[in-house]
Amino acid sequence: MAALVRDPDKLPQDARLTTICGDLSQPDWGAIENFRPTVCLHGAWIATPGIYQTSPANEDYQTWSIRLAERLYTNGLEKFVGLGTCLEYASSTSALDENSPRQADPSSYTRAKFAVLDALETIAPSPQAWAWLRIFYAYGPGEHPGRLIPFAASELAAGRAITLQRPDDVVDYVHVQDIAHAVLVAANPLASGILNVGSGSVTSPREIAVLIAGHFNAIERLTFSPQKNLESRFANTKRLQALGWHPKSRLATALQMICAVTSE
């Protein structure tokens, strides 16, 4: 196993792991080709809250990602697994399957994802040589502190009040451990095409904030902005479940663990 990283010191020390210094803009092609990868997991995207949707860097990541896939296929890659997003789908009050309509007015982030997905369908040597995981609302250890769950937990634990701007959107939160399992499944030769990764359960930012506030006895420190236009995205995961994947984490239990760690 090898990882292309800017700073190898941030990775755990493991004799099974080869680190290759660099990033998508300047990968060490000599080291990559010497390693001779058969499967590539591509998850390098701008993801900073408040920035990633409109970042001009999205166009660069689009170009670099397509170039990466093209060159890896030329050197014998058997499978390219890309991480997409549920934001590729239009909002819907029904569970979204892999054939659901695309977002009609995508952000630059989503447009870049579309471009890489469309390129894979063209450049991959066979339909089995690529998979595209549309990740719904990921959460778990290591989240950016500006995302909803760590932000709410840290602010409420510190005795501060918070206001949610879009409290009533319908969302589908999926734990990073379940996402990791989905990645392993997607690397299987039997897995191909677009695959949804979500819990299949619906919740809202309001419900999540209330659960977190309950842990800290801080319900009175929550306020919610009025919301006119609701967005709704939750997953139909039948395709992935047919390959043996099932979500194991439970949101309420995981939130309790996150709050407990935040309190320490």
Describe this structure in words.
A 4-stranded parallel β-sheet has the order 3-4-5-9, with helices on both faces. A two-stranded parallel ribbon has the order 1-2. It is of the alpha/beta class and 264 residues long. The two termini are 35 Å apart. The chain contains 8 helices and 10 strands. It has one domain (37-263): 3-Layer(aba) Sandwich (Rossmann fold). It has helices at 29-35, 57-74, 108-123, 148-157, 176-186, 205-215, 238-241, 251-263, and strands at residues 2-5, 18-21, 39-42, 79-85, 130-135, 137-139, 162-164, 173-175, 193-197, 222-224. Helix 3 (108-123) links the parallel strand 4 and strand 5.
N→C terminal distance: 35 Å
Say what the CATH topology is.
Rossmann fold
Structural class: alpha/beta
Order of helices and strands: EEHEHEHEEHEEHEHEHH
**Largest sheet report:** 4 strands, parallel
Strands in their spatial order, largest beta sheet: 3-4-5-9
CATH superfamily: NAD(P)-binding Rossmann-like Domain
Q: Any low-confidence stretches, pLDDT <50, length ≥5?
A: none
Report strand %. Answer: 15-25%
Instruction: Provide the gyration radius in Å.
Output: 19 Å
Helix percent reads 25-40%
* Number of separate strands: 10
Q: What is the CATH architecture descriptor?
A: 3-Layer(aba) Sandwich
Number of helices: 8
Mean pLDDT across all amino acids = 95
The CATH class, by name, is Alpha Beta
How many independent structural domains? 1
